[in-house]
Design goal:
By secondary structure, this protein is mainly alpha-helical. The protein is built from 19 helices and no strands. It has a domain at 118-272 and 340-433. Helix 3 (32-53) crosses helix 6 (102-115), helix 7 (119-146) crosses helix 8 and helix 16 (342-370) packs antiparallel against helix 17 (379-392). The longest helix is centred in the last third of the chain and has 29 residues, at 342-370.
Length: 435
């Protein structure tokens, strides 16, 4: 029994989990179901190790306690009690899905306190994230220049570049990963000395922002611009490079009527229409129905996926008269699969208490990742915080939280960022990447 204990609780288990972790970015790109299995296995190994060693010190971390309270409340609200409003999606689609959300929290804390505690392990994940961003960028440019990606898929019907995917998934993910990949590489180039190397580093930022525009998905552009603003806030020395990047990306945006009329129609014309008539846009109708749901059940919401299960109920199509918004037309997409926004989903899933807990949890994660950045904004930690900040940005159209595919990247990056905050001294990889 002792050898089994040493294998499961000791170094062999950790090495095996690191191999699994190295495969997670690749599987998130092209085999999401396998990525889900890998994440679950890592979380399970961590929990088994904690049970065998009786080491549950990680449960005393402030963010873990807050996350457990949020998760417990979500499960309670998703349980189909025999009272109106609770667990509208039922046992299978609501309660069970809420219950298994805990595995992603376990995966995150496993990265923080177990797997990513050495420079070599952190570099492994950094390379995985950077190469994923590079792969999306290369395939997007290949599709732009040749009409097809490596797998033979053309650009989407609305002009969006799909990168290495069949569907338009490239834009938001590229925006989230961009500064994790670009900042360390730019810093490495700058450390080589000379204006040419520094210009090359700035050129990477410009190329990344231009790629966000050419991919042609609104949220990808928003995340790229928002991330650049965060970087300049913490690194004022990069203002000139940022201005050049914005100028070149702006010029490309103005040239879209010639370069890609469908992309210009989506990024500019459709965005202008949605913003000028927001309440009658698909996103406005989703906002209206989700808000009515939250106000109808303010204490416990409708449970996980309650929005999907109850959206067609007539009592949720009253509009918001106090905002001058009438009932929705429904055909525009008000009854989508989920509310298209993490915070609206938190409200419909678990009421205002759940929304408050979720906001606090997101804030605690971003606060932890941003600690000491003003004093020591090394490129790696700044890139990780920038990615988390774009994920947490509230004015966005998002996937369902915390369903993979996109949220697999979020929890991977979150665990990576939290593992870096645990290190008081300057890390070896920060020395390598610092400019």
């Amino acid at each position: 029994m002792r050898p089994v204990f040493q294998i499961v609780a000791g170094a062999p288990s950790r090495r095996f989990a690191l191999v699994l972790l190295a495969l997670v970015p690749l599987c998130l790109l092209h085999a999401v179901s396998l990525a889900e299995a890998l994440i679950d296995l890592i979380a399970g190994l961590f929990l088994i190790r904690a049970a065998l060693t009786r080491d549950f010190a990680w449960a005393r971390l402030a963010w873990v306690r807050l996350a457990l309270v949020w998760w417990a409340w979500l499960v309670v609200c998703s349980t189909p009690w025999p009272w109106p409003g609770f667990g509208a999606a039922g046992w299978r689609d609501g309660f069970i899905q809420a219950l298994v959300t805990g595995r992603l929290l376990l995966f995150t804390v496993a990265l923080q306190v177990w797997l990513l505690t050495t420079p070599a392990a952190r570099r492994l994940v950094l390379w995985g994230l950077a190469l994923s961003c590079l792969w999306i960028g290369i395939e997007s440019w290949q599709q732009l220049l040749t009409g097809h990606n490596l797998f033979g898929y053309p650009r989407w019907g609305d002009g969006s570049l799909t990168g290495p995917f069949r569907k338009p998934l490239a834009g938001p993910l590229f925006g989230h990963l961009l500064f994790i990949a670009v900042l360390p590489a730019s810093a490495w180039l700058a450390r080589r000395g000379g204006w040419g190397w520094r210009a090359a580093g700035g050129g990477l930022v410009t190329l990344g922002l231009v790629s966000c525009v050419l991919i042609g998905q609104r949220m990808g552009v928003v995340y790229g611009a928002l991330g650049l603003a965060v970087v300049v806030f913490y690194r004022p020395r990069l203002r000139l490079a940022a201005l050049v990047a914005v100028a070149v990306a702006g010029a490309v945006l103005l040239a879209l009527p010639v370069l890609s009329p469908p992309t210009e129609a989506k990024l500019v014309n459709e965005t202008r229409t949605n913003l000028s008539h927001f309440s009658k846009s698909p996103y406005g109708e989703i906002f209206t129905v989700a808000t009515v749901m939250g106000l109808d059940s303010p204490w416990h919401g409708l449970g996980y996926r309650g929005y999907r299960a109850s959206c067609l109920a007539p009592r949720f199509n009253t509009g918001l008269p106090w905002l001058g918004i009438g009932p929705t037309s429904r055909w525009l997409g008000a009854c989508n699969l989920h509310p298209q926004n993490y915070y609206l989903q938190a409200l419909t899933d678990s009421g205002f208490p759940g929304l408050l807990l979720f906001v606090s949890l997101m804030g605690s994660w971003c606060w932890a990742a941003a600690r000491f950045l003003r004093q020591r904004p090394d490129p790696l930690r700044l890139g990780l915080f920038t990615s988390l900040f774009t994920f947490a940005w509230p004015l966005a159209s998002t996937d369902e939280f915390p369903t993979l595919y996109m949220l697999g990247w979020f929890f991977l990056i979150l665990g990576f960022a939290l593992s870096c905050t645990d290190i008081a001294a300057r890390t070896p990889e920060a020395d390598m990447l610092h400019d």
